């Protein structure tokens, strides 16, 4: 039988088995990504929790950016501004760029030391200038 494989395909049976195995692996991996699940086990395009938010400099900078943008856009309208404290929770989602869902602790100016929670959504597109865009910023309905 091995001789017929060698004659038919023009190479040894061990090479035929190796190539067959590699093709099988490619087929199986393509099935797993078609159903929206990659090798990491997460859903493609789904939200992923960011760990160690308190020490993540990039996430804290995005939180500060969000509060600054909010102040620029709504300070006149709302009559007050916010002072950034910290990002306490964050998730990311890969889209055309990366979308960050941030839970931000901030102090509303005029409220002495009382932190309030806000939900912000920021998209980062490194190839566009400016690369950060605040999509939403609202008082949080959950803590």
| Major sheet strand order | 1-2-3-4-5
CATH architecture of the largest domain: Roll
Specify the CATH class of the largest domain.
Alpha Beta
The percentage helix is 25-40%
Largest sheet: 5 strands, antiparallel
Average predicted local confidence, pLDDT: 81
- In total, how many domains does the architecture comprise? 2
Low-confidence stretches: 32-42
Secondary structure blueprint with pairings:
Blueprint: H1 2-9, H2 13-34, E1 48-49, H3 57-78, E2 82-95, E3 97-108, E4 115-124, E5 132-139
Antiparallel strand pairs: 1-2, 2-3, 3-4, 4-5
Protein described:
This protein is α+β, with helices and mostly antiparallel strands and about 140 residues long. The protein has two domains: about 1-35; about 50-140, Nuclear Transport Factor 2, Chain: A. It contains three helices and five strands. It has a five-stranded antiparallel β-sheet. A hairpin with a 6-residue loop joins strand 3 and strand 4 (about 115-125). It is elongated. The N and C termini lie far apart (about 70 Å). Mean pLDDT is about 80; it is low at about 30-40. InterPro entries: Cystatin_dom (IPR000010), Cystatin_sf (IPR046350), Prot_inh_cystat_CS (IPR018073). This is Proteinase inhibitor I25. It comes from Macleaya cordata.
Offer a concise description of the structure.
By secondary structure, the chain is α+β, with helices and mostly antiparallel strands. It is 36% helix and 32% strand.
Question: What structural keywords apply?
Answer:
Nuclear Transport Factor 2, Chain: A; 2 domains; 5-stranded antiparallel beta sheet; 5 strands; 32% strand; Prot_inh_cystat_CS
């Amino acid at each position: 039988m091995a001789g017929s494989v060698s004659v038919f395909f023009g190479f040894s049976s061990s090479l035929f088995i190796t190539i067959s195995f590699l093709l099988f692996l490619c087929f199986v991996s393509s099935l797993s990504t078609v159903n929206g699940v990659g090798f990491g086990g997460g859903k493609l395009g789904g939200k992923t929790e960011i760990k160690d938010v308190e020490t993540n400099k990039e996430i804290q900078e995005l939180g500060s950016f969000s509060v600054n943008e909010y102040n620029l856009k709504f300070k006149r309208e709302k009559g007050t501004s916010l002072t950034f404290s910290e990002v306490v929770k964050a998730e990311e989602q890969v889209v055309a760029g990366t979308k960050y869902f941030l839970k931000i602790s901030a102090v509303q100016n005029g409220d002495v030391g009382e932190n309030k929670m806000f939900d912000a959504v920021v998209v980062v597109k490194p190839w566009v200038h400016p690369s950060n865009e605040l999509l939403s910023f609202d008082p949080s309905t959950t803590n």
